[in-house]
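FORM 12-B: Structure-to-Sequence Request
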């Protein structure tokens, strides 16, 4: 026996819920169901931002906002004019959730709990009569004719559903991508996008938790990034590294995550400048030991490690530094070479580059260009962003545009 709905949304995550709620708010007559394969919905929302849910970013100019998307920059410009970060803030406020801006621009619920977002969505779906059906793993999708009308037939392991319109909001789901390929859609092969670098190196081994403002470059590529770098037990993380991992997702995948990076611990200072400064310090602090106190905006522990790596003993005085030692220290500070051997997932926030080819989507409605009444929302398409609330913003924007289109 088929269960019939006007619209079926596959995927009970951020994009699926946001799409459903906006559709029924615009047209309460529509009968809408969300199908979720797991036992629980909104799992990624629950764990995102360390359980606080980084809802969006305080970047309100569409032409600036698109710059945080390694894939999708050009395509999202129009959608962000329709529904951007400011609209997200207003939408959540209208639904009883106040957001706050943190110093780095990330936005969270004032409650500091992702449960606030989940409660907001669950209350809205109940109030609007949207069916939320869990344990429904889609096995097959058909586009069939019934009484001269084209309908979507969705079969799960336990049920069969019919709907006039189908919205896929399944995130990075290889099984759904395979089904779409049978419908003629091209899928850009997925590769990891947000990840940290595994580095075993004596200079950083004892420094987990130490951070610095740096510039990082990947050898033999144009990849470069500035921002905070965090030393971890397994290597390096922080915004500077995560930006590189997002922009370099395909390049670093092709290198099998074995590559060399250059770290400028003094951000944009060049070697000659630093050498000059070190010579001045040699005069000014002649009798002081070099390793004891950092003369730059680096923690003393990191400074000491780089001093030792330059061939300078712990007790060596500034006055006793040789020309070669000064040069070595300037090199360590401005162009430290580190070997990356592998990657680690960034927290639980697994993001992939890849998905439905963007050329096959109408970005005015998020509809498929190949099939009528088929729409996409969220990460199922080949769009991804750096960390900071941008991936959620894509979910809200695409969901809103689908709802508008329908």
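FORM 12-B RESPONSE
SEQUENCE OUT:
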């Amino acid at each position: 026996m088929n269960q019939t709905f006007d619209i079926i949304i596959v995927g009970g995550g951020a994009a699926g819920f946001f799409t459903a709620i906006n559709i029924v708010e615009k047209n309460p007559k529509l009968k809408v169901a969300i199908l979720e394969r797991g036992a629980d919905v909104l799992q990624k929302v629950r764990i995102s931002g360390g359980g606080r849910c980084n809802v969006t970013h305080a970047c309100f100019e569409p032409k600036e906002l698109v710059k945080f998307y390694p894939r999708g920059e050009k395509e999202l410009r129009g959608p962000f004019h329709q529904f951007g970060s400011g609209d997200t803030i207003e939408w959540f406020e209208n639904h009883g959730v106040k957001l706050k801006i943190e110093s780095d621009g990330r936005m969270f619920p004032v409650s500091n709990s992702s449960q606030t977002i989940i409660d907001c969505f669950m209350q809205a779906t109940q109030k609007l009569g949207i069916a939320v059906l869990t344990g429904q793993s889609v096995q097959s999708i058909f586009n069939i004719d019934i009484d001269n009308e084209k309908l979507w037939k969705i079969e799960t392991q336990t049920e069969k559903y019919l709907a006039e319109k189908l919205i896929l909001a399944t995130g990075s789901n290889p099984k759904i991508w395979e089904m779409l390929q049978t419908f003629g859609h091209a899928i850009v092969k997925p590769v990891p996008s947000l990840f940290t670098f595994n580095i075993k190196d004596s200079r950083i081994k004892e420094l987990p938790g130490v951070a610095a403002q740096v510039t990082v470059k990947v050898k033999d590529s144009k990849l470069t990034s500035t921002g905070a770098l965090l030393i971890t037990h397994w290597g390096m993380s922080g915004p500077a590294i995560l930006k590189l991992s997002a922009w370099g997702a395909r390049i670093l995948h092709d290198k099998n995550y074995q590559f060399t990076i250059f770290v400028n611990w003094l951000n944009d200072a060049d070697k000659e400048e630093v050498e000059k400064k070190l010579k001045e310090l040699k005069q000014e602090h002649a009798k002081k030991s070099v390793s004891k106190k950092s003369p730059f905006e680096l923690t003393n522990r990191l400074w000491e490690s780089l001093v030792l790596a330059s061939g300078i003993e712990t007790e060596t005085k500034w006055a006793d530094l040789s020309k070669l030692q000064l040069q070595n220290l300037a090199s360590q500070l401005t162009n430290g070479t580190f070997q990356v051997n592998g990657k680690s997932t960034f927290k639980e926030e697994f993001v992939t580059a890849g998905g439905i080819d963007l050329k096959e989507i109408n970005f005015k409605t998020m509809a498929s260009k190949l099939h009528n009444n088929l729409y996409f929302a969220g990460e199922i398409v080949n769009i991804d962003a750096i960390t900071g609330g941008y991936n959620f913003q894509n979910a809200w924007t695409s969901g809103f545009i689908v709802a508008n289109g329908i």
